[in-house]
Every structure is written in C-alpha cells, then in structure tokens.
Design brief:
The chain contains two helices and seven strands. The chain is mainly β and 112 residues long. The chain has one domain. The strands form two sheets. The chain has a four-stranded antiparallel sheet. About 14% of the residues have low confidence.
C-alpha cells in the first residue's frame, strides 16, 4: 500500500486542502481502492455515492438518488473510488482521515 503526500500532511495537521488524492502508482497503474482510517470526524461528515448510471446532470435539473455514509473514528473503511463519489463536511471542525490507496490485487487478501 502507498500513502500519498496529501494524506500524510493531513494526518500531521498541516492545513492543506486535499480534495484530490493521487490514484496512480509509480508506474501509472490506476489504484481504484482506498482504505480510510478516520482520525477526526463528526456526525456532519458524509461520503456521498452516486448511482452507477449517473452521468452529466441535465441543464433543466433532475432528481438523483444518492447513498450517504458517515465514517466513524476508530474504524477502517474500504472504498471503491472508481465509482463517482465525494466527501462533504457540514461542520466547522476539520475532517481528518489517514488514506491508503490500493490496487485491486491488493484487496483480494483482505478479510472482514
């Protein structure tokens, strides 16, 4: 597993916006999975997933059903980042996660 520099800086408390996390391994291989370890979070932080058939929103607007999850501190979460998603924080308190990017072959050895 690789830790990207943005994840390390966030863990250290350096105020860097990490809206985009590098998903390429050194050789350019796409790493579609992320392990999230919430360090500091709250009940107003959410991960939002869109349906797999979601495309570009229509100009006239449309109703889209999303799934929302609240990652709790003290747990680990495996996220398939090849699916459209985003994180939101409706709190004034920073959301801090340690994030490890993984490729598909690495997660085959994981168990619950």
């Amino acid at each position: 597993m690789l830790l990207d520099i943005n994840s390390i800086l966030i863990l250290l408390g350096i105020g860097l916006f990490a809206g985009v996390v590098n998903t390429l391994a050194g050789g350019g291989k796409v790493m579609d999975w992320r392990l999230h370890f919430p360090i500091q979070t709250n009940n107003r932080c959410f991960l939002v997933n869109w349906p797999s058939n979601f495309g570009t929103p229509k100009d006239i607007g449309e109703e889209v059903t999303t799934n929302m999850a609240n990652f709790k501190s003290g747990n680990a979460y495996l996220l398939n980042t090849s699916m459209m998603h985003c994180a939101t924080n409706y709190s004034e308190r920073e959301r801090i996660h340690l994030i490890a990017s993984c490729d598909t072959s690495a997660i085959k050895n994981f168990s619950v």
